[in-house]
Amino acid sequence: MRLGRRLVLTGLLGTAWFATSGFGPEDKTITLALQEGGTASWEIAAMTAAGLDAYHHIKIEVRGVADSRAGQVALQAGEVDVILSDFIWVSSQRNQGANFTIVPHSLTVGGLMVDPAGPVKSVADLEGETLAVAGGPVDKSYIFLQAYFNSKTGKVLPDLIQAKFGAPPLVNELLIGGQAQAALNFWHFNTRARVAGMVELISVKDMLAEMGVSKQPPLLGWVFKEKTGRTKKEEVQRFLDASFATKEKLLTDDAIWDTIRPGMRGAETDDALFLALRDAYRAGIVTSYGPADIQAATESYALIAKFGGSDVIGDKPDMAAGTFWSGYSK
Predict the structure, then answer these.
(1) Residue 87 CA neighbour count, 13 Å, CB half
(2) Rg (CA), the chain
(3) Residue 23 pLDDT
(4) Cβ-proximal residues to 284 (8 Å cutoff; 6+ apart), any chain
(5) How confident is the model at residue 36 (pLDDT cuts 50, 70, 90)?
(6) CA 115 to CA 177: how far, in whole Å?
(7) Pairing relation of β-strands 111-114 and 182-185?
(8) Burial 133-149 (b: 16+ CB within 10 A, else e)
(9) End-to-end CA distance of the chain, in Å?
(10) Are 278 and 285 in contact (CB under 8 A)?
(11) Residue 159 DSSP code
(12) Are 201 and 109 in contact (CB under 8 A)?
């Protein structure tokens, strides 16, 4: 019995020594393009602060880009391994012969914001009014709103409104200043508008649900080449494991938010904005990745194809096979 206990103790000590010695798994490196000031950088900051990158033996080299388009160009040029983009872009690229693929990152989408004292009390009230939109005429939320408006009224939204397209801060200025009676903006700018007194009339999530989409689709995800998934399989796997582990921490641990708060632009000293951004971010955290998520994306893609047309998805109306990476599940 004593010998058995001694052998168990020796084995445990050996395991601990192995885990803390130079014989542990070798760190791998992956290069990630992130929009400077974007909310995806909060996850990477939390990952580093919690040591989850080190735990999963992955080193992340972040290269700042000005916007999502710059990230897409960097990926196409082979300058980075992974970017944040949406499955609509991935599918359109695959339909043109590219081999990009995606793993979900966020469920968060925007919504239709209005002044509670203004004239827009329902989606039908948009007719004859000014709508401010971030992201341009092919913005996904704008296309979903067109589909929803059509389902409710039978009418074509762009024919009945004055649309003003602009950068997210300008869109909020137009709404709060009364130059627009409604606005579609990125979720974190909608949160800022809400703190300033505006209200969400309906979220894109609820629009999609009312139009029959089975669950909230993961619009945004980590995008990489299929070749990268093969040649850097271990790096991609470790990065995704660290990403999902960080999401779980952001979902359950208030203290980690205090750590990353200095990087949350505008929320450093504004408690109301900080809590609103934290809670809105948490509402969009992806906790699973499987067939149901892909089905929801397929259903929402059909709406994009119908109302956005070739300007958004290209010449092929169906979501390309392999858009979502089969090499990972959660």
Answers:
(1) 31
(2) 22
(3) 56
(4) 106, 107, 108, 109, 187
(5) confident
(6) 10
(7) antiparallel
(8) bbbeeebbbbbbbbbbb
(9) 42
(10) no
(11) G
(12) no
